[in-house]
Amino acid sequence: MPSAVLEIVTVPCLEDNYAFVIGNLESKEAAVVDVPEAGPIKAALKAKGWTLTTVLLTHHHWDHVDGLADLPNLESLVVVGAQADAHRLPDLTFALGNDQSISILGHSVQTFDVSGHTVGHIAFYIPAADAIFTGDSLMAMGCGRLFEGTPAQMWDSLQKISALPGETLVHSGHEYTATNVQFALTLGEDNPDLAKRAAAVTAARAKGTPTVPSTLAEEMATNPFLRADSPPLQSALGMDGADALAVFTEIRTRRNNF
Ligand code: ZN
Ligand code: FE
Question: What is the CATH number of domain 6-256?
Answer without folding.
Answer: 3.60.15.10
